[in-house]
Design goal:
Distance between the termini of chain B: 10 Å
Strand content of chain A: under 5%
Structural class of chain A: mainly alpha
Helix content of chain B: over 70%
Shape of chain B: rod-shaped
Number of helices of chain B: 3
Structural class of chain B: mainly alpha
Distance between the termini of chain A: 20 Å
Order of helices and strands of chain A: HHHHHHH
Radius of gyration of chain B: 25 Å
Helix content of chain A: 55-70%
Oligomer: heterodimer
Largest sheet of chain B: none
Order of helices and strands of chain B: HHH
Largest sheet of chain A: none
Number of helices of chain A: 7
Number of strands of chain A: 0
Largest interface: A-B, 39 and 36 residues
Chain lengths: 189, 119
């Protein structure tokens, strides 16, 4: 056994509360904890004068709990974060990646919906535009009204999309960056 | 022995609490956003029933939707907008929740490292 590796596990587990160590010991989940971890827990509990309870049946594989996902949906770096043997306690990386994909999808849907919505409201844009050209002759006035209504509609669509699309995209990127930062900080564990 | 409790400052607890609430609010918003189009439909229908009561011969909402496809599309788009808006708020609230959790996790990782180095 690599002594440094064992020492690192021991020191890391020594920071945990006794109750938490007893829980890990009892659960006996070898998919989550290395074999060395159980040996370290045994030593730590002995050092703390705690009676070591009996362990449950060892778990070597989770059949039902595993969340299924298509590996093709994620990049190599993202898969590395998902499959890391030292998973985070406060969030699920897979949930973050799924959320960022949903945000990307929603931001695209927003563009389509805004365009349809503004096309449906073309009449109101036309009414606004016609109020500016009341004194113009009929033929030139109609052309100007249509041009202005189209410009108004395009502006309305562009502003609407900008207000929603870019913040959503930014949120997706921020979440990915935060996850990468957290992943890099795990080596500090 | 350094207890794990020492890692969590009041600020960590506050952040985790906000993250938990953001997660609950996200699901609440999602449920409401699915109910809102229904409420909107009932509202439009109530307007038509009112018109029928006042003017007698006014068409019903179903007749209007069948006879005027442009109006039908605008009603559907209107409802879709409510729904999509709810989904966007849901995604934002979920993003805030996960983001805060990731910030706490990152900070805890670095604190663990510094405490280990001190030892």
């Amino acid at each position: 056994m690599n002594n440094d590796f064992y020492k690192q596990i021991y020191n890391n587990l020594d920071l945990k509360e006794t109750d938490e160590l007893l829980e890990i010991w009892k659960t006996n989940d070898h998919t989550e904890w290395a074999d060395e971890a159980f040996q370290a827990i045994k030593e730590i509990l002995k050092k703390r004068n705690i009676d070591i309870s009996e362990q449950d049946e060892p778990i070597y594989k989770h059949d039902q709990d595993e969340e299924e996902f298509d590996e093709n949906d994620f990049s190599e770096d993202e898969l590395k974060i998902i499959d890391d043997k030292n998973p985070p306690d406060f969030y699920d990386p897979l949930e973050v990646l799924k959320l960022t994909k949903l945000i990307d999808l929603a931001s695209t849907a927003i563009i389509v919906l805004y365009i349809i919505f503004n096309l449906m409201n073309f009449q109101s844009d036309k009414n606004i535009a016609s109020s500016f050209f009341t004194g113009y002759p009929q033929s030139s006035g109609t052309i100007l009204i249509y041009i202005s209504a189209i410009v108004l509609m395009a502006l309305n669509t562009a502003i609407g999309i900008t207000i929603v699309y870019f913040p959503l995209k930014a949120l997706a990127r921020i979440l990915k960056i935060l996850m990468e930062m957290e992943f890099k900080s795990r080596s500090a564990k | 022995m350094i207890e794990k409790e020492n890692f969590f400052s009041q600020k960590h607890k506050q952040l985790l609490s906000i993250a938990t609430w953001a997660n609950y609010i996200a699901w609440f918003i999602l449920v409401i956003s699915f109910l809102m189009p229904l409420a909107r439909y009932v509202e439009i229908q109530a307007t038509y029933i009112y018109q029928q009561t006042i003017f007698g011969q006014a068409p019903s909402l179903i007749q209007e939707l069948k006879g005027n496809p442009a109006y039908a599309i605008s009603v559907i788009t209107d409802m879709l907008t409510y729904w999509l808006r709810g989904i966007i708020y849901f995604l934002i609230a979920k993003g805030i929740s996960l983001g805060l959790n990731m910030i706490v996790e990152t900070d805890i990782n670095y604190r663990e490292k510094s405490i280990r180095e001190e030892k």
